[in-house]
Amino acid sequence: MRRDAGLLSGLGVVATLRMLGRLVVFVVWTLVLLPVQMVLIRLPGAGKQRLPMRYWGGVARIVGLRLDVSGAVAQGDGRPVIFVANHSSWLDIVALGAVLPGCFVAKAEVARWPGINWVAAAGRTIFVSRRHRAAAGERNAMQERLAAGDNLILFPEGTTSDGARVMPFHPTFLALAGDATRPIVQAVTIVYDRMDGLPICRRNRPLVAWYGDMDIASHYAELGRHDWRARIVIDPPLVVAGGRKQLGAALEARIGAVAAQIRQGRDVEAEASSEKS
Q1: In this structure, are residues 15 and 207 in contact, taking their beta carbons and an 8 Å threshold?
Q2: Distance of CA 17 to the CA centre of its chain
Q3: With 12 labelled, which of 48, 164, 170, 240 sits at a CA distance of 20 to 30 A?
Q4: pLDDT for the residue numbered 277
Q5: What Pfam family is a match for this entry (predicted)?
């Protein structure tokens, strides 16, 4: 019994050292690339779009996150893309930032988080309050980004969940699909399905899901002790027909169905053809 207890204690020490080591490397990686990105966002060219993907790809490797991606980003004759994804954890930013060339649309509170706000600003994040009276101005800001050729990454659930389900979509900003730039719309599903090489179940899903009143520091302190795999399915472009509510319903149904299949351990691939909204 004592030997088993000692072994478990030793494993705990190793996990803690791993978590702290990853945090140190993350800080160094950020301090190296952040000044470069702050210069790039003031210059013409695609460097300011490419560097964030490289940055988040590096962060994924640092925190022990492996990405299993199905599907591909649309190559749409210069038209911008609106990626619509489900949301269960701050780790989604790392995973999706590494594979999707776009600017995140995030809640306004993120702009007040010390340190993280710098990274978000460098990634050219658009902050929204989701207050009705501010919606028009926030939508205008997103339209300006689309007109400039930027892609957007939306989380229409409006908040994170426990990862066991996809919450109802709020279609407010999906009206952007009818923008004059004729943006492409792609559904993106992300589910964390493995922890330390083993399938994730309902019991340990809260270790990666970040929701409710969890604080990010203590959440990372546990999450950083483990290795993770995220399954990401990028669907082909939707043929947008109808209003934002119909589009939101179609996206919610598709992403919810794919997420459920992944949680059940079933193989899922991106759809072979576009689906109509």
Answers
A1: no
A2: 27
A3: 164
A4: 38
A5: Acyltransferase
Angle (CA) 265-226-156 rounded to 5° is: 60
pLDDT at 59: 97
Cβ count within 10 A of residue 162: 15
Question: Which residue type, as a one-letter code, is found at position 234?
Answer: I
Q: How far apart are CA 99 and CA 277, in angstroms?
A: 25
Identity of the amino acid at 50 = R
Sequence-distant (≥ 6) Cβ neighbours of residue 229 within 8 angstroms: 65, 66, 67, 68, 192, 193, 194, 195
> C-alpha angle 64/232/276, rounded to 5°?
165
Which amino acid belongs to residue 165?
Answer: R
CA neighbours within 13 Å on the CB side: how many for 214?
22
Dmax over CA atoms of the chain, in Å, equals 69
- Tell me the per-residue pLDDT of 32-85, one tens digit each, with 9 for 90 and over: 999 999 999 999 888 999 999 999 999 999 999 999 999 999 986 789 999 999
Element (H, E) at 140: helix 135-147
For the chain, give me the number of helices (H) and strands (E)?
A: 7, 8
Which DSSP helix (H) or strand (E) runs through 128? Answer: strand 126-128
- The predicted-structure confidence for 83-120, as pLDDT tens digits, reads as follows 999 999 999 999 999 999 999 998 888 878 777 888 99
Judge residue 246's burial from the number of C-beta atoms within 10 Å of its C-beta, 0-12 exposed, 13-18 middle, 19 or more buried: middle
